[in-house]
């Protein structure tokens, strides 16, 4: 028996919907043969964007999408990706497989994709190999409404109207692939570059500085906040869950129970990272003016056998669903500081929500978690308490998050991490009186996944076996499960 209490009269921070964001890089089959198939493809598309993918992302209300990288961002020169497609410059994608990047998907195409999905664009600029002028002109090109060299060029390329672009990243992983910089050097460069990322008209840019990376680099946060904290709206954080080592990450499927728990244990390290980085941020920014933007997170395994090692294509199992569920519960719990997160990546790369093969598409277990959690978008976090036990080396058996939406409806997301044990749950709701409860569930064995021949082995079903009496919910959560419970 596990005891859960949801204090509906103890309201905490607003859960920014952008926590449920995603990331799309020019990497493997994320953009090409992923979201973008071109206007002449036999695969149904609108202006080259796959209709099935657009519809799937609308269904989970994808709020924000980061592009064009990743490491690719600090090699990307945006002017190569505008104008007539046949004359766009070709380049080598040195980071990701050494393939030819023909730039047929550029600024116009990305912003068109965001328009179709209904999400906010988050553009990541080039500090590592770019110039201040280039970055400055990109914002002018996208957002200036009037007569200017870049606005005129945009009109010449078929888009007279400016776009709205709020989120802009000034460099990516500049401690590594983005230029191997030291924090004080980057912080000064950040101050300089961001000066020329202008607000045009009512387009107010939310400027995001490169934060700490794969190591627990608290010194980076300290230095960048000290030197440049007053010049940013957000600081990024990247953390990947690698079950093995970077040299031998281990396979996405066919893992044993020990490896499963080890993966979840590593995913839960996000809690410590956020806590410690936000402590440093609070020292320089006690008023929480700077948001933490976890703009790369998720599992990273060995690529699927026979696929290009530079394409980072991996399957996605119930283990990934549990990683997503516990991580999103952590983000919700820290939503007083975490204002955006972008799982890596959208389609066919790392912990994707969607996989494609030709005209076929599957929704991964991770996609279904984003579906179960979508009612947290912009809702108010509620205080909750769980009496729980551990199942493995510090890994708890359950994690929870609860929020109240604008209509007073409570949504509880609960993950049972245990690979083999179901738990009876006794959940008390304090506060006002609730009359109805319903639930949806995603559950299967830890290694279950969807593929192109079995696209629905792992899917959400309705869960009717719960009762609500005198503000007490009773139900059994099966092993390896993620639930959404709605109470009103
Ligand atoms: O998401 C894959 C890569 O991981 C990104 O390009 C980079 O920023 C990170 O190291």
From TrEMBL:
Its EC number is 3.2.1.55. Gene3D superfamilies: Glycosidases (3.20.20.80), Golgi alpha-mannosidase II (2.60.40.1180). Coiled coil: none annotated. The keyword tRNA-binding does not apply. The keyword 4Fe-4S does not apply. GO terms for molecular function: alpha-L-arabinofuranosidase activity. It catalyses: Hydrolysis of terminal non-reducing alpha-L-arabinofuranoside residues in alpha-L-arabinosides. InterPro entries: Alpha-L-AF_C, ASD1_cat, GH, Glyco_hydro_b. Keywords: Carbohydrate metabolism, Glycosidase, Hydrolase. Residues 295-481 form the Alpha-L-arabinofuranosidase C-terminal domain. It is an enzyme of class 3 (hydrolase). Homohexamer; trimer of dimers. This is non-reducing end alpha-L-arabinofuranosidase. It comes from Hominenteromicrobium mulieris. The lineage of its organism: Bacteria, Bacillati, Bacillota, Clostridia, Eubacteriales.
């Amino acid at each position: 028996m596990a005891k859960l209490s949801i204090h509906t009269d103890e309201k905490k921070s607003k859960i920014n919907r952008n926590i449920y964001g995603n990331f799309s890089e020019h990497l493997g089959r994320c953009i090409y043969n992923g979201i973008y198939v071109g206007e002449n493809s036999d695969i149904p598309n609108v202006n080259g964007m796959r209709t099935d993918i657009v519809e799937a992302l609308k269904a989970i209300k994808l709020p924000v999408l980061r592009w064009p990288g990743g490491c690719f961002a600090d090699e990307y020169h945006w002017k190569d990706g505008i104008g007539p497609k046949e004359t766009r410059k070709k380049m080598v994608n040195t980071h990701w497989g050494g393939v030819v990047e023909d730039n047929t998907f550029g600024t116009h195409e990305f912003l068109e994709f965001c328009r179709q999905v209904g999400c906010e664009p988050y553009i990541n600029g080039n500090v590592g190999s770019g110039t201040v002028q280039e970055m400055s002109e990109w914002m002018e090109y996208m957002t200036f409404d009037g007569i200017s060299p870049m606005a005129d060029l945009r009109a010449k390329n078929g888009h007279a109207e400016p776009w709205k672009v709020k989120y802009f990243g000034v460099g990516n992983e500049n401690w590594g692939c983005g230029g191997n910089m030291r924090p004080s050097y980057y912080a000064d460069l950040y101050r300089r570059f961001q000066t020329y990322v202008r607000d045009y008209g009512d387009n107010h840019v939310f400027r995001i500085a490169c934060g700490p990376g794969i190591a627990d680099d608290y010194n980076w946060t300290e230095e960048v906040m000290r030197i440049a904290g007053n010049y940013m709206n957000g600081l990024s954080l990247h953390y990947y869950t690698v079950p093995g080592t970077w040299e031998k990450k281990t396979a996405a499927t066919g893992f044993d129970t020990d490896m499963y728990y080890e993966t979840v244990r590593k995913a839960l390290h996000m809690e410590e990272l956020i806590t410690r980085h936000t402590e440093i941020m609070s020292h320089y920014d006690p008023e929480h003016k700077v948001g933490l933007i976890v703009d790369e997170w998720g599992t990273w395994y060995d690529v699927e056998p026979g696929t290009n090692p530079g394409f980072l294509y991996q399957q996605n199992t119930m283990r990934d669903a549990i990683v997503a569920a516990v991580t999103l519960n952590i983000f919700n719990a820290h939503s007083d500081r975490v204002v955006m997160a972008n799982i890596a990546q959208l389609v066919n790369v790392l912990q994707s929500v969607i996989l494609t093969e030709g005209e076929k598409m599957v929704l991964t277990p991770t996609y279904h978690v984003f579906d179960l959690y979508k009612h947290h978008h912009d809702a108010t976090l509620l205080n909750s308490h769980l009496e729980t036990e551990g199942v493995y080396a510090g890994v708890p058996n359950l994690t929870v998050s609860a929020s109240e939406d604008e209509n007073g409806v409570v949504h509880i997301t609960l993950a049972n991490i245990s690979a083999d044990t179901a738990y009876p749950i006794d959940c008390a709701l304090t506060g006002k009186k609730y009359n109805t409860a319903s639930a949806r569930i995603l559950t299967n064995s830890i290694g279950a996944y969807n593929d192109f021949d079995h696209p629905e082995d792992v899917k959400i079903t309705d869960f009717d076996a719960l009762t609500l009496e005198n503000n007490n919910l009773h139900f059994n959560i099966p092993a390896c499960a993620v639930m959404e419970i709605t109470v009103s």
